[in-house]
Amino acid sequence: MNGLLERVLLPYKQDCSYLRSAEITVESGLATGRGRFEIPQSCYIEDTGHFNSVEFNICYNQLVYYVMASAVRDRLMPAFTSWTLQDYWDRQLPNILITSLSSKFKRPIDPRSFSGEVGFTRITQRSLLIAETACRFWDDNGGQASGEITLAILNPPQGG
Q1: Which of 24, 46, 114, 148 is least surrounded, with the fewest CB atoms within 10 Å of its CB?
Q2: pLDDT for 10-61, tens place per residue?
Q3: Taking the CB of residue 74, how many other CB atoms lie within 10 A of it?
Q4: Other Cβ atoms closer than 10 A to 65
Q5: 131: how many CB neighbours lie within 10 A of its CB?
Q6: Is the CATH number of domain 3-153 3.90.1150.10?
């Protein structure tokens, strides 16, 4: 696990840190992260045998946090070029809010080993940032889930 990923996952309890690795790509000024996940045991419920909506949300959060931290560190998206990593760490939990979340589960995903992708599709700058994202999760056995999530990022640094 790289140092940035370790720092992104720091707010999570150890048994609730599911993202194992991630890489970032950028197209047309919007970043996408692809990650590997493992959920050996759910942190909140007995084993259901499949990836569920709560884990969907947790995995989305972990990967989108990593994408945003990478975007800040590496100046990958115009909306984050004025941010420092400290600006990001200060805002990671209190200022990044999910305003809408829609998820679809097409085939059960094995939570013990699966992949995921989160991509920014649009960012609107006002007194806050509105970030539209799309995500999907899959496993090697044909499991599939997808979603669309909108984030409100409150109190961006001046110029961001």
Answers
A1: 46
A2: 999 999 999 999 999 999 999 999 999 999 988 777 777 778 999 999 999 9
A3: 13
A4: 23
A5: 24
A6: no
Asked if 44 contacts 30 with a C-beta cutoff of 8 angstroms, the reply is no
Output the pTM of the full model. Answer: 0.95
- CA 106 to chain CA centroid, nearest Å: 20
Q: Which helix (H) or strand (E) holds 124?
A: strand 114-125
Task: Report pLDDT digits (tens) over 101-148.
Answer: 999 999 999 999 999 999 999 999 989 999 999 999 999 999 999 999
Q: What is the DSSP letter of 79?
A: G
Q: In sequence order, what are the residues at sequence separation of 6 or more whose Cβ sits closer than 8 angstroms to the Cβ of residue 36? A: 19, 20, 21, 22, 113, 114, 115
CA distance 139 to 129: 32
Question: From CA 110, how far away is CA 87, in angstroms rounded?
Answer: 36
Longest CA–CA separation in the chain, Å: 46
In angstroms, rounded to a whole number, what is the distance separating the alpha carbons of residues 33 and 104? 19
What are 150's two structure tokens? Answer: 């909108």
**The tokens of 26 are what?**
């950028």
